Amino acid sequence: MTGRDGNLWFTENNLGQIGQITPGGVVTEFPLPSGPGSLPQGITAGPDGNLWVAEFGGNKIGVISTAGVAVAEFPVPTANGGPSGIAAGPGGIWFTENNGNKIGRITVAAGVGISPPSGLYGVTQRFDLVLLILEAPGRAVVGGNVTVDGADVTVPLVACIDGHVDTFDGETGLVARCPGLTFGLLGTGSHTVTAMVAFSDGSSASATVTWTILP
Prior knowledge:
The chain is an all-beta fold.
C-alpha cells in the first residue's frame, strides 16, 4: 500500500510489525503496541494522514503515523471478530470482520492546518492564507471562518477550495489558497490566526497559528 508520504507500507503478520520501504529500497520496521499477537493483516492510508491497520489477532484497529509512531488502537466490538481487510471509504475507515461475519466502520475526525505553522515576515511583505484540509471521504467542506487577532476576516472559504491536493508540513490534503486574505502590513509583533472549517456531516475542525511580523 502506498502511503501519503510516498513510501510503500506493508504488514508483517507473524511479527506484529508494520514495514516501510522507500522508493530507494530502504526498509524500516515498526512494532505495533500489541506485539506479535496482533497479527496485522490489512493496512490502508487514512484521510487523517495516518496508517490504519487491521489487527486480526489483537481484534483491534491500530493507527500509526507515517513516522512509525503508534497513535492508537481501537478494540473491535465483536469478540474475536478478526479484522482483516481494511480501506478508507465514505464516512471513515471500513474493515471486514473475518470471524464475526460483519463489516465494521470507524469514523475519522477531519482536520485543518494553516500555513505557515510558524513564520517570520518583514513588515512590508504580503502573504496569502493557505489552509490544508484533512477531509474524510464522503465529507464535504461547506463553510468556515478565519480570524486574525480575534477580528473576523472571513471570505467564502469554499470558493478557495478547487479540489487541489498537495502536501504541506508533512501532511497531505485539500489545499485552499485564499488570495483575498492577505495579512501584510499588520504591524510588527505577533498575530494570532485562527481558521475553522465546517463539514457536511455537521462536524468542524479548527487550527490556530502565530505569525510574527518583524520590523
